[in-house]
C-alpha cells in the first residue's frame, strides 16, 4: 500500500483562495491522502467557503472562534494526523496535480537519511498570475549557484533557498522535533535549522507548487516594524543554532548570519535586540566594532 500523506491545511482570512487551494489538493494524482483543515479564527467568509468546498469529502476540520497563531494551529492539526508524511499547506497556495505523487516517488529514490523533500515553485499574485520562479529568482540574484542538498545545515544559516510550501516531511522528523515551536511567530527558519541538523534534504527540480505572494504575508512584514514578533523569533532561532553548530565552517556561517541580523536591528533602531545579538556574537567569536557598524548606516542615510 502507498504510504499515507497527511496534508494539514491552514486558513486565516483566505476566503478568496480556499476553493482553488482545496480543489488542487482534491485533484492530486496520489490517492492515499489524509486531509485536515483548520481555520484559525478567520473574520471573512473562509469557513463558509471551506464548508462548500469539502461537501461530501472525508476530511477532518477544526474551526477556531479566535486566532491561535500559525505554529499552535499547525501543531493541533499535527496531533490529529496519522500519515507517514506531513505537508504544511496554507490555503492560499495551489498544488500542481502531481505534487504528492512525485514527492513520494522522490523519497523512494533517495537515502533513508533524507527527512525532507522540497521542490521548485512559481510565485503567483492575488489574481493567480505567475510573477516569478523561486529557484530562477535566487540564481539571478546570485544567492545560489545550485540548489543545496544533503546536509544543508550550514546553507540554512547562510541564506534562504527553500520554498516552504513545497516541503514534504517524514513524520519522524516532527516526532523528533516535537512539532513547531509555539513560542515563535513563524515556523520555517526554526524548522530548517533544527531538522537539518539531524536529517538530510533532497531537491526535486520541478515546479510542483504555486506559492501566492500577498502584501499582507508575514514574510513581507518581517523587517517593517521596530519591535515585532518576527525579529524576536529570528533571534531565538539563532540562539538555537549557536548550540547546534559543530564545525568551523558552520560557526563562520552562523557568525555571518548574526552580523547580518545585528545590522538589521541597528538599521531599524531596535537597540534592545541589537544588544542581545552583540552578546551572542561575542559568544560566537565575532570580531566587530559596534561604532563602525552604526557609522555605516548613518553614512547611508
- The 3D shape can be described as globular
Helix content: 40-55%
Structural class: alpha/beta
- How many beta strands in the DSSP annotation? 9
Structure overview:
- It is a single chain.
- Strands 1, 2, 3, 4, 5, 6, 7, 8 and 9 form a nine-stranded mixed sheet that branches.
- This protein is globular.
- It starts with a strand and ends with a helix.
- The chain is of the alpha/beta class and 301 residues long.
- The chain is built from 13 helices and nine strands.
- The chain has helices at 18-26, 46-53, 70-80, 99-109, 134-140, 153-158, 171-177, 188-196, 218-221, 229-244, 248-267, 271-283, 290-300, and strands spanning 5-11, 33-39, 60-63, 85-90, 94-95, 114-124, 130-133, 168-170, 200-212.
Give the SSE map.
Elements: E1 5-11, H1 18-26, E2 33-39, H2 46-53, E3 60-63, H3 70-80, E4 85-90, E5 94-95, H4 99-109, E6 114-124, E7 130-133, H5 134-140, H6 153-158, E8 168-170, H7 171-177, H8 188-196, E9 200-212, H9 218-221, H10 229-244, H11 248-267, H12 271-283, H13 290-300
Parallel strand pairs: 1-2, 1-4, 2-3, 6-9
Antiparallel strand pairs: 4-8, 5-9, 6-7, 6-8
Helix pairs in contact: 1-2, 8-10, 10-11, 10-12, 11-12
Amino acid at each position: 500500500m502507498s504510504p499515507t500523506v497527511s496534508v494539514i491545511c491552514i486558513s486565516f482570512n483566505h476566503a478568496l483562495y480556499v476553493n482553488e487551494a482545496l480543489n488542487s489538493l482534491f485533484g492530486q494524482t496520489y490517492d492515499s491522502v489524509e486531509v485536515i483543515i483548520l481555520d484559525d479564527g478567520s473574520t471573512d467568509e473562509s469557513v463558509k467557503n471551506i464548508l462548500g468546498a469539502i461537501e461530501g469529502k472525508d476530511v477532518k476540520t477544526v474551526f477556531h472562534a479566535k486566532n491561535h497563531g500559525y505554529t499552535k494551529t499547525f501543531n493541533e492539526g499535527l496531533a490529529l494526523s496519522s500519515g507517514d508524511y506531513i505537508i504544511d499547506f496554507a490555503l492560499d497556495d495551489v498544488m500542481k496535480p502531481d505534487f504528492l505523487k512525485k514527492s513520494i516517488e522522490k523519497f523512494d529514490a533517495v537515502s533513508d537519511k533524507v527527512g525532507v523533500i522540497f521542490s521548485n515553485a512559481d510565485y503567483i499574485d492575488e489574481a493567480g498570475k505567475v510573477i516569478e520562479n523561486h529557484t530562477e529568482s535566487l540564481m539571478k540574484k546570485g544567492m545560489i549557484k545550485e540548489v543545496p542538498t544533503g546536509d544543508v545545515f550550514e546553507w540554512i544559516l547562510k541564506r534562504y533557498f527553500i520554498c516552504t510550501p513545497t516541503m514534504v516531511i517524514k513524520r519522524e522528523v516532527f516526532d523528533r522535533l516535537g512539532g513547531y515551536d509555539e513560542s515563535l511567530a513563524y515556523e520555517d527558519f526554526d524548522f530548517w535549522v533544527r531538522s537539518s541538523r539531524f536529517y538530510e534534504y533532497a531537491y526535486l527540480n520541478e515546479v510542483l507548487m504555486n506559492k501566492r505572494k500577498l502584501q499582507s504575508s508575514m514574510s513581507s512584514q518581517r523587517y517593517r516594524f521596530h519591535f515585532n514578533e518576527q525579529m524576536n523569533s529570528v533571534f531565538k532561532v539563532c540562539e538555537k543554532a549557536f548550540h547546534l553548530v559543530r564545525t568551523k565552517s558552520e560557526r563562520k556561517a552562523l557568525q555571518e548570519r548574526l552580523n547580518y541580523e545585528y545590522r538589521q536591528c541597528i538599521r531599524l533602531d531596535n537597540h534592545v535586540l541589537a544588544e542581545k545579538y552583540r552578546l551572542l556574537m561575542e559568544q560566537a567569536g565575532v570580531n566587530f566594532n559596534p561604532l563602525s557598524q552604526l557609522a555605516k548606516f548613518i553614512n547611508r542615510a
